[in-house]
Specification:
single chain, 354 residues, alpha+beta, eight-stranded mixed sheet
């Protein structure tokens, strides 16, 4: 699991609306501080000394009462039971820690040693810090996160509009048969930029819990079909059909931000030479993305068309009789393909002059 996915999972565990978060907030308000370990693996029990067994169902009130004692509280892996309280945790002292306070230093070392989620609540600073393996994350006030999430949604709106313009332009160029690698790589770049903002918003949503529902709805509406569109662009232009589009997109998504700005690197990911001049190279789409715009045209039929004709240019030039001969296409569907392509082209012309 990627570090980003691990963090999202952790944030959902302690999100507002969960019983665990309610218990943590109670401890925070009481300014008693606390150290909580989630997990009951042998690695954790080996580090625990003293204290007493509780083995009771979890409740925010129970967590709050037990936190009044100095030791650590151990919860089950699903955080539904309190297993032990007032225990002393003795992690390996040779594990490096950047923390200064004893409680936070212990939390970081236990998390690194066991891989468990460890939560440290600072009595003095009134801060909840999460540790999971090498991850450290300080929970922030919901109002601050909500403001950041709303800013990110506004950014997402702008990025989505820019993506739509680029993709519409690419479609028009495909019909006119004047596409260059610059147009293709810019579309893929815009898709990835949108997906990166989505990743940021998902982090906020996980941290907001029940308070993030409106943000979730706004985000889902804005990113509908973006991933699918990006994969179809890749499928249209990747040099070899042996390279899965998802693998190409995953590779691009792993790049640092500065690499994403270099369109020649995206061209290389598609299988073209990585020089800057390659962006002027003319290319032809296979036709997956444009055919996907035709209503009620199943993917197997699109695949048969591309396999038969090899390019969008040849599909556009094909007669109804030639289309009819492709497996899965009768005369009725052949006509609907010709009409669908004509309608989509007309729509693009209207958008260009609109």
């Amino acid at each position: 699991m990627k570090e980003e996915d691990k963090l999202l999972k952790v944030l959902r565990t302690v999100a507002p609306g969960t019983p665990l978060r309610e218990g943590l907030e109670n401890i925070l308000r009481a300014k008693t501080g606390g150290l909580i370990v989630i997990g009951d693996s042998p690695e954790i029990t080996d580090l625990a000394e003293g204290g007493f067994a509780v083995n009771a169902e979890f409740s925010p009130a129970n967590l709050y009462e037990l936190a009044k004692m100095d030791g650590a509280i151990i919860l089950s892996a699903d955080a539904r039971r309190i297993l032990a309280a007032n225990t002393q945790l003795i992690p390996n002292l040779s594990i490096p820690s950047s923390e200064t306070g004893i409680r936070h230093r212990t939390a970081e070392r236990v998390a690194r040693q066991t891989g468990a989620l460890v939560i440290s609540i600072s009595q003095r600073r009134s801060v909840i810090t999460l540790y999971k393996g090498t991850i450290k994350y300080v929970l922030r006030d919901a109002g601050v996160i909500l403001a950041k999430a709303n800013q990110a949604i506004q950014t997402l709106e702008k990025y989505r509009l820019a993506l739509d313009r680029v993709v519409t332009g690419l479609s028009m160029l495909e019909f006119e048969e004047v596409v260059t690698l610059f147009d293709v790589t810019r579309a893929i770049q815009r898709v990835e930029m949108v997906l990166r903002v989505v990743e940021e918003i998902e982090k906020y949503i996980s941290e907001l819990g029940v308070e993030g529902r409106l943000i979730t709805m706004q985000m889902e509406e804005l990113v509908a079909n973006v991933d699918h569109e990006g994969l179809l662009v890749i499928r249209d232009y990747v040099t070899t059909t042996d390279k899965p589009p998802q693998a190409v997109l995953n590779m691009i998504s792993s790049w640092p931000a500065e690499d994403l700005l270099d369109l020649s690197l995206i061209a290389r990911a598609l299988g073209y030479p990585g020089s800057a001049s390659v962006l002027d190279q003319g290319v032809s789409p296979r036709g997956y993305r444009v055919l996907d715009k035709i209503p009620r045209l199943p993917l197997p039929v699109i695949e048969n068309l591309v396999k038969e004709f090899g390019s969008l240019k040849r599909i556009l030039e094909a007669s109804i009789h030639e289309l009819d001969e492709v497996e899965g296409i009768g005369e009725v569907r052949a006509r609907s393909i010709k009409e669908g392509l004509a309608r989509y082209r007309e729509q693009l012309v209207q958008e260009r002059h609109g």
